[in-house]
Amino acid sequence: MTDARDAVRHLLGAEPTSVGSNVVTLDDGRRVIAKRGAGPRANAAEAAGLRWLTTGDVGVPDVYAHDETWLLMQYVPSAQPTPEAARAFGHGLAALHLRGAPAFGAPPPDGPRDAWIGLAPMHNIEEPDWATFYAAHRVEPYLRDAVDQGLLDARESAVISQVCERIDAIAGPPEPPARLHGDAWSGNLHWSSDGLWLIDPASHGGHRETDLAMMRLFGAPLLDVILDAYTEAAADAGAPLADGWRERTGLHQLFPLLVHTVLFGGGYARQAVAAARSALTLA
């Protein structure tokens, strides 16, 4: 299948009447998102992640069909952010995280171990604790790639390596695995008339502070409202965030900053080193 029209015909048995940049209108009036995968198993991973996050806690698009090239999903019209939607999302995200995961590093049910975050490969490998998982399967692979590309020198890479060496002292109190979106930057928070939805996940069993740190990395509309509602709901559920969670933001942002470093280079390498230095102050 060479284009979205062919994908819709083949996977949905429907006839497109128009095709935009990634929105296909069908002859029955429905609109469908048609998205190309980043690489092998990317669509299977994203589809499994979307289904795993579809719990009713927050808005998540329905998956209609997918193959190795195309992922067809529910189209959700955009709308302006509102405080009401932000509060509801914060409450819902806390509930979603607390639904848990089988283990740290566990992929979604029926999802592949070898997945993607954006345009970068990402491996979901189960470990007994979050610190081991995060150091071995999130930070170190991208650190090696950044060094191999000449994006980090020996002194800079040593700072990041120290975080992995001292991560047990930095990570904070142990928590059970959370059900993570995994790539919750502002571009993957979709505001609609029905509230704030999650799209484009890199889902796995992880630490709930990771999603919160990702939202803070590039900013998001009404972020303070979201985080206040989240902390309120987590506390009400008997699972308050551990003291110092805001100070651990740099630790959890280290992974996405290294991903951006290997994909885009430039200033992201400096930001990754700064995040590592921030994390080391907690050791």
From TrEMBL:
Superkingdom assignment: Bacteria
Keywords, alphabetical: Kinase, Transferase
GO MF annotation terms: kinase activity
Family: Belongs to the fructosamine kinase family.
PANTHER family membership: FRUCTOSAMINE 3 KINASE-RELATED PROTEIN, PROTEIN-RIBULOSAMINE 3-KINASE
Stated name of the protein: Fructosamine kinase family protein
UniProt source species: Haloechinothrix salitolerans
